[in-house]
Amino acid sequence: MTVVDKDSEGQGVRQYHIGIAPGEVSSVALLPGDPFRVPMIAEFLTDVKDVAHQREHRTMTGYYKGKHITATSTGMGCPSTAIAVEELARVGVTSFIRVGSSAGLQAGIEPGDLLVSEGTLRNDGTTAAYAHHGFPAVPDLKIAVELHRIALELSAGSSTNVFSGINASDDAFYAEGPEWISELNRLGILNVEMESSALYVVARLRGLRAGMICAASSNLVDGASLYSDKNTAMKEGWMRSIEVALETAVSLDL
Questions:
Q1: Which of 53-67, 196-210, 232-246 has the lowest mean pLDDT?
Q2: Best CA proximity match to 45, nearest among 217, 188, 245, 212
Q3: Radius of gyration, CA atoms only, the chain
Q4: Measured at the alpha carbon of residue 185, what is the angle toward residues 184 and 186, in degrees to the nearest 5?
Q5: DSSP label at 137?
Q6: How many CA atoms lie within 13 A of 190 on its CB side?
Q7: Bridge partners of 95?
Q8: Which residues, in sequence order, are bridge partners of residue 218?
């Protein structure tokens, strides 16, 4: 019997899930969840190339202020996010910035506001397979600080507010009932999404750098549901979060 070692399998070749080979991407990747948002990132880039689109993972590359940038969608949730990060790392990506949407959990967060992550409460199953339950899910410090600084700079004079704090990563979107939302609010958790836990844990274990900036899609304690009329504000916030991430990649030379 020969047991497959997935840590050694697939090195230096085109990756099975994301469809990318070494040399086709840059050292830094922006990670939206939705593959349809990858072209929105490409709107900021020049010399854009469509690299691959397999399953939920769509990848495009281009240049922003002379910096080579990759954008790859992770799909929803920690399992597909972990796969994307693992395989992107195998083809040369060393830094990751998630640009997603997220529900606010504290009063005063409006759709379109920017939310910078300082760490994640791991309420997912994927990271339990990687590390002890007490292992922290935290971003690269310099990336997190720069995301916050640039977010404040780019939002100055606008109606967009910038918040930073600890978020939560959940596995089950429709299982987030009122009791769980109230508990997260009581703990001071800023927002909840579904991917950063895997992003941070995998990045730490593989010696990579990661951060996250989200646009608020709703507010679960102020009654602003995903089904509310918030599309315009959210899109504006999401596009601003992309610009913040790109400026951070240039500033830190990721």
A1: 232-246
A2: 245
A3: 17
A4: 90
A5: B
A6: 21
A7: 28, 209
A8: 103
Integer Cα distance of 29 and 99 in angstroms: 10
Alpha carbons 225 and 111: distance in angstroms, whole number: 10
CA–CA dist 191, 134 (Å, integer) = 20
Predicted pLDDT at 228: 62
Average pLDDT over residues 1-22: 89
Q: Mean pLDDT over all residues of the chain?
A: 95
165: nearest Cα among 216, 232, 234, 225: 216
CA gap 227, 239 in Å, rounded? 20
pTM of the model: 0.96
Tell me the per-residue pLDDT of 40-93, one tens digit each, with 9 for 90 and over. 999 999 999 999 999 999 999 999 999 999 999 999 999 999 999 999 999 999
Residue whose tokens read 């967060």: 109
Burial 190-199 (b: 16+ CB within 10 A, else e): bbbbbbbbbb
Region of residue 87 (left: phi > 0; alpha: psi -120 to 50; beta: else): alpha
Beta strands in 32-141 (DSSP E): 46-54, 57-64, 67-72, 95-104, 114-123
